[in-house]
Write a structure and sequence with these properties.
Length: about 70
Amino acid sequence: MRVIIDRFEGDYAVCQDENKKIINIERGRLPHDACEGCVLLIHNDRIEVDYVETEKRKEKIKKLMDLIWD
Protein backbone atom coordinates (compact mmCIF):
# COMPACT_ATOMS: atom_id res chain seq x y z
CA MET A 1 0.00 0.00 0.00
CA ARG A 2 1.19 3.54 -0.72
CA VAL A 3 0.19 6.53 1.41
CA ILE A 4 1.20 10.18 1.69
CA ILE A 5 1.77 11.92 4.99
CA ASP A 6 -0.62 14.87 5.04
CA ARG A 7 0.20 16.16 8.53
CA PHE A 8 1.07 15.22 12.07
CA GLU A 9 -1.43 15.41 14.91
CA GLY A 10 0.01 14.58 18.31
CA ASP A 11 1.57 11.13 18.20
CA TYR A 12 0.08 10.27 14.80
CA ALA A 13 0.83 10.87 11.14
CA VAL A 14 -2.40 11.55 9.27
CA CYS A 15 -1.95 9.87 5.89
CA GLN A 16 -4.04 9.51 2.76
CA ASP A 17 -4.03 6.46 0.54
CA GLU A 18 -4.57 6.34 -3.25
CA ASN A 19 -8.35 6.14 -2.71
CA LYS A 20 -8.33 9.31 -0.53
CA LYS A 21 -8.95 7.23 2.60
CA ILE A 22 -7.44 8.70 5.78
CA ILE A 23 -5.14 6.41 7.78
CA ASN A 24 -3.54 7.33 11.11
CA ILE A 25 -0.13 5.83 11.78
CA GLU A 26 1.70 6.11 15.09
CA ARG A 27 4.82 8.27 14.77
CA GLY A 28 6.87 5.58 16.47
CA ARG A 29 6.20 3.20 13.55
CA LEU A 30 7.54 5.66 10.94
CA PRO A 31 11.09 5.87 9.61
CA HIS A 32 13.03 8.60 11.43
CA ASP A 33 13.22 10.81 8.32
CA ALA A 34 9.50 10.66 7.42
CA CYS A 35 7.94 14.12 7.12
CA GLU A 36 4.85 15.84 5.74
CA GLY A 37 4.52 15.17 2.02
CA CYS A 38 6.55 11.95 2.12
CA VAL A 39 5.25 8.96 0.21
CA LEU A 40 5.31 5.83 2.36
CA LEU A 41 5.27 2.23 1.24
CA ILE A 42 3.58 -0.14 3.66
CA HIS A 43 4.30 -3.86 3.28
CA ASN A 44 2.87 -6.08 6.00
CA ASP A 45 4.19 -4.41 9.16
CA ARG A 46 7.12 -2.63 7.49
CA ILE A 47 6.94 1.07 6.58
CA GLU A 48 9.53 2.83 4.44
CA VAL A 49 9.85 6.16 2.65
CA ASP A 50 9.59 5.94 -1.14
CA TYR A 51 12.24 8.57 -1.92
CA VAL A 52 11.75 8.42 -5.70
CA GLU A 53 7.99 9.03 -5.54
CA THR A 54 8.40 11.66 -2.84
CA GLU A 55 10.84 13.60 -5.03
CA LYS A 56 8.57 13.27 -8.08
CA ARG A 57 5.66 14.72 -6.08
CA LYS A 58 7.78 17.60 -4.80
CA GLU A 59 8.88 18.47 -8.35
CA LYS A 60 5.31 18.28 -9.66
CA ILE A 61 4.07 20.55 -6.87
CA LYS A 62 6.94 22.99 -7.47
CA LYS A 63 6.07 23.20 -11.19
CA LEU A 64 2.41 23.83 -10.38
CA MET A 65 3.34 26.55 -7.88
CA ASP A 66 5.64 28.17 -10.47
CA LEU A 67 2.75 28.23 -12.96
CA ILE A 68 0.47 29.88 -10.41
CA TRP A 69 2.96 32.54 -9.33
CA ASP A 70 4.33 33.41 -12.79
